[in-house]
Amino acid sequence: METLTDDLERRAWDLIQEVEERGGAVAAIESGFVQEQIAESAYAWEVDVASGERTVVGVNKYRTDGGASVPIMRLNEDAIRRQIARVVAYRERQGRERVADVLGRVERVARGSDNLLPVMKDALLAGATLGEICGRLRGVWGEYRLGG
């Protein structure tokens, strides 16, 4: 057990050192190094599962013949309508002008270097939704795409 722990510690330290040599965590992410390491690790895991080297109960060992019957969840249309009505009522109660103003502040701060948390908190307290805030951030920074 001690040997396994020592090996894990050594490999983790080697990886940390490599990230540092690449200029730190942000530089390693921006260069694609971190994503590459994750992809390689995931691939090695899948190869081990496919070969039987790694056991995953229910996937490559101890599977049931015919599979388990899983009931299909039916959407409750009435609950969906009620939730939509709650969101519409919520937005009607908000001061949309105030929300628009604070969302503009979120966008301006995102374009700069100030701390976003206070203005994001203001936006939430004004009644902005998380989706609206994230939409403004995506408008400034774009949306992350692996390998892009």
Automatic annotation (TrEMBL):
The keyword Lyase does not apply. Its EC number is 5.4.99.2. It comes from the Bacteria. Keywords: Isomerase. The keyword Ligase does not apply. Residues 1-143 form the Methylmalonyl-CoA mutase alpha/beta chain catalytic domain. Gene3D superfamilies: Methylmalonyl-CoA mutase. One of its GO terms (molecular function) is methylmalonyl-CoA mutase activity. InterPro entries: Cbl-dep_enz_cat, MeMalonylCoA_mutase_a/b_cat. PANTHER family: METHYLMALONYL-COA MUTASE, LARGE SUBUNIT (PTHR48101:SF1), METHYLMALONYL-COA MUTASE, MITOCHONDRIAL-RELATED (PTHR48101). This is Methylmalonyl-CoA mutase, large subunit (Fragment, part 2). It comes from Nitrolancea hollandica Lb. The lineage of its organism: Bacteria, Pseudomonadati, Thermomicrobiota, Thermomicrobia, Sphaerobacterales.
